Amino acid sequence: MTARADVALGSNLGDRAAWLASARAALSLLPATRILAASSIEETIPFGAAAQGPYLNQMLALESALPPTAMLLALQTIERRLGRVRRERWGARVIDLDLVRVGNVAMRSKQLVLPHPGLPDRAFWQRELAELDRLVARAA
Q1: Three-state secondary structure along the chain?
Q2: Active-site residue identified among 98, 121, 122, 127
């Protein structure tokens, strides 16, 4: 069985657009997964108190047979492969991949909370999801 998974991409170090492109390419290679749609890319101010540059953000709608926890592990593997180092919460990073939603799944575990708890606080995610909803509906 497949479900739509919405994945947020973000980068605020180096060639931000290239990091997003690398992440999109890696996501397209996940098993039993295909990209349905990609939102526009937008620049946003960072969360947290540390001084850092602005982010480029984008959201992808994927159709995937991967269960949510397997998808999360795949996202973390892609982050590591692309050079992400987790040092501080909301710190600067070459790539950040967040599993925002998976269908209508609501879950809370030590590893994963769905929908992502940051969704209500990130207007840019809400805009990107609305754009994805329109794109996916148009393609159906």
Answers
A1: CCEEEEEEEEECCCCHHHHHHHHHHHHHCCCCEEEEEECCCEEECCCCCCCCCCEEEEEEEEEECCCHHHHHHHHHHHHHHCCCCCCCCCCCCCCEEEEEEECCCCEECCCCEECCCCHHHCHHHHHHHHHHHHHHHHHC
A2: 98
For the chain, the domain total comes to: 1
Residue 133 among the catalytic residues:
no
pTM tops 0.90: yes
Q: Domain of 42: which CATH number?
A: 3.30.70.560
Query: Is 121 annotated as catalytic?
Result: no
Quick check: is 84 catalytic? yes
Q: Annotated catalytic residue: which of 16, 84, 101, 122?
A: 84
Interval 45-94: pLDDT, tens: 887 666 788 999 999 999 999 999 999 999 999 998 998 776 666 667 88
